[in-house]
Write a structure and sequence with these properties.
With 678 residues, the protein is of the alpha/beta class. It contains 27 helices and 18 strands. The chain is elongated and about 135 Å long.
């Protein structure tokens, strides 16, 4: 599936981060659909929410009964979930969600419900009214109703021998007993044309989580909606609930939830069933029923870590992104036979993994230190990977990272240290950047975070270098700062002649501060500008090993030492071999040249060659590539190499003198360039 880079602008004229993404339709209602939308908005901008319109309780039920309109409550919640994070969007979201408290007619009415109803009455168009509210909130996507007419849910409640027919969403949701024969009234109701059109053009359809019988199942019960889902080219993801719902699904397992869908729509085929492993009672049973519907079972931790039964938007976004990209673990692309998939732990033992990735993997798993150390690390990561942005008059902090472990570490640190939640935008790699990048954003309390981490001074001005707590801190703070900087913008090359550890810096001041932090470990780091970017570089192999250990990458330090030692041993052996080879070539060249000169000496001297020089000269001519030592061994009696060299030298000197007297070319005249270049 081709992805387009984002060129769209938000309501304030700011470019939207990430990609346009696939066309996704999310089906459901209430809090379950809201959780899905909060996750999907990090994955795509082409998003349509199709909302169940059967609510008959609370403010929605009162307006429905009085005006005969669609229940606006679930539609309002979907709009709120898609609201832009700007000050404008968040303010109007809070206005939309505001409920009146009093003793009159407005008691417990949500203002958003009234606003939606007013637009419906003014425009006479349910989708048009929702679009106007969406423009007010600057939402990412679109919200449409499942049907143009309000629906009523009916079901048989079986409790032992008792069977009772109940009507209404509230009654169905709170019924005690097993639900059977779930139906919609009117039975001939039609799916909204805009909803059908969105499904027909979708790349992916996401169903669930939510109230199973009153929010999820109605989309399959409505005949025209079910037909659109069955005929669409889109692939389908089912997100399971984190627990059974009190009353409606008491006693139902995760596998039972999927079976209910299969019984309601036997022809429905799924591509992915997504579940949190902590909520699955029997993985084999769930895998079997998923397989019967053609789906791959993907187990991911999507539950929030606050102890509540809520889907974490960032974790769910990552899981959905994996599903859309076909990254479903060891089974391969989505659509393969269903298996239970567990995300493997991060390891640096993979032989194909680069040193940079291996070091970041290990640093991302370093045990959290003291609060001061974690603050220094967070401040460093935000300084080197992020930036301060002013959006609608308030500070927004972003961190652009290329490693998933670093993202998780920063997200957890922000939550544990400062009780701040961050949002994630995943940017898929393209032709220039092959890997994915992650943008972690803090919007609501960006000013507080900047102040607490020292990114701004007491007057609210951005710090150009590193925070004071890092610059004036001890060795532990320096090590934490280096760890954060490397996770954000670090790289490490293989040990060798050009080995280096580098960190790309946001400015020269930050680079100098990082150099100062390295100096506390007696490590020489240099700040330099390379192709317009400030970098801090450590080139000494031993210093790199020390720095890796100080940052907490003990395993990487061990591997670095082994690779460095192996590389140095191999280099020494190569140098020795090259040295010996050079000596041999030099000796052979000298022997050939000497043999040619000796031959010319015999021509010049003729019969006047002294007898004691004849033997050495003839051995030289007969064995032109032999060494002097080898010539001495061939002599009879044997001579030392110095003796052989002396006799050949005297022979050549005698011949050159005679040539000078006779006025003929000497022994060197026979040497050619080829002999000299051998």
């Amino acid at each position: 599936m081709n992805q387009k880079r984002s060129t769209t602008l938000d309501a304030d004229g700011w470019p939207r981060r990430g990609e346009e993404g696939p066309a996704v339709v999310a089906l459901g209602g209430g809090h379950g659909l809201s959780a899905t939308l909060r996750a999907l908005r990090h994955v795509t901008h082409r998003l349509t929410a199709v909302v169940t319109v059967a609510d008959d309780g609370g403010s929605s039920g009162r307006l429905r009964r009085e005006f005969g309109c669609l229940p606006p409550g679930d539609l309002r919640m979907a709009l709120a979930a898609l609201t832009d994070d700007s000050e404008w969007g968040l303010t109007w979201r809070d206005v939309l969600q505001h409920r009146f408290a009093g003793h009159g007619e407005l008691d417990n009415h949500a203002l958003g419900n009234l606003l939606i109803l007013a637009l419906w009455q003014l425009l006479g168009d349910d989708v048009g009214g929702l679009d106007w509210v969406g423009r007010l909130l600057a939402i990412h996507g679109r919200v449409v109703p499942m049907s143009s007419s309000p629906l009523v849910i009916e079901a048989d409640v079986v409790d032992g021998e008792r069977r009772e027919r109940v009507s209404g969403q509230v009654a169905v949701a709170t019924a005690r007993g097993r639900l059977e024969n779930v139906a919609l009234v009117p039975a001939d109701a039609q799916a909204h044309p805009v909803a059908v059109q969105a499904i027909e053009g979708a790349d992916w359809v996401v169903l669930g989580p939510g109230s199973w019988y009153s929010s999820v199942l109605p989309h399959l019960i409505l005949p025209s909606m079910r037909r659109a889902l069955l005929e669409a080219r889109a692939r389908r993801v089912l997100i399971l609930n984190l627990s059974a719902q009190h009353g409606e699904t008491d006693g139902m397992t995760a596998a039972d939830h999927v079976r209910v869908l299969a019984d309601c729509a036997p022809d429905l085929r799924l591509d992915v069933v997504l579940a949190d492993p902590s909520t699955v009672e029997d993985i084999e049973a769930l895998g079997s029923v998923a397989r019967s519907m053609g789906a791959t079972l993907v187990l991911r931790q999507v539950r929030s870590s606050d102890g509540l039964c809520h889907h974490d938007p960032l974790r769910l976004a990552a899981a959905l992104r994996d599903a859309f990209d076909g990254v479903v673990g060891d089974v391969g692309p989505a659509g393969a036979p269903a298996q239970a998939i567990h995300t493997p732990p991060i390891t640096i033992e993979e032989p194909h993994m680069s040193l940079t990735v291996a070091v970041k993997d290990e640093l991302a798993r370093v045990a959290p230190g003291t609060s001061a150390q974690r603050r220094a690390e967070v401040a460093s990561m935000l300084r080197f990977a992020g930036g301060l942005h002013i959006v609608s008059g308030r500070i927004v902090i972003e961190a652009d990272l290329d490693h998933g472990g670093a993202v998780r570490r920063l997200h957890h640190a922000l939550r544990d240290l400062f009780a701040m939640e961050s949002e994630l935008v995943v940017v898929r790699g393209g032709s220039l950047h092959r890997g994915s990048r992650y943008v972690l954003r803090v919007t609501e309390r960006g000013k507080d975070l900047a102040r607490l981490t020292g990114l701004v001074d007491g007057r609210g001005r951005p710090v150009r270098g590193m925070p004071v707590a890092v610059v004036q801190g001890g060795r532990s703070a320096a090590a934490a700062a280096w760890r954060g900087a490397f996770l954000a913008r670090g790289s490490l090359t293989e040990p060798g002649r050009s080995s280096s550890l580098e960190v790309t810096c946001p400015g020269s001041e930050a680079a100098l501060a990082l150099v100062g932090a390295a100096r506390r470990f007696d490590i020489v780091a240099k700040a330099r500008e390379v192709r317009g970017a400030d970098r801090v570089v450590v080139r000494d192999g031993e210093a790199i090993g020390v720095l890796l250990k100080k940052m907490g990458a003990a395993e990487a330090h061990r591997r670095w030492g082994e690779r460095r030692s192996r590389r140095e041993t191999r280099g020494t052996a190569n140098r020795l071999a090259n040295f010996d080879d050079a000596n041999l070539r030099r000796s052979a060249r000298a022997a050939v040249a000497s043999g040619a000169r000796v031959e010319r000496a015999f021509e010049i001297l003729g019969e006047d060659v002294p007898a004691h020089l004849v033997q050495a000269g003839r051995l030289r001519m007969e064995h032109k590539q032999a060494s002097l030592e080898e010539l001495g061994q061939l002599s009879d009696p044997q001579l030392t190499k110095d003796a052989v060299a002396g006799r050949i030298r005297r022979l050549l000197a005698m011949a050159d003198k005679r040539a000078h007297e006779l006025g003929v070319p000497d022994t060197e005249s026979v040497l050619t360039q080829e002999m000299l270049d051998m």
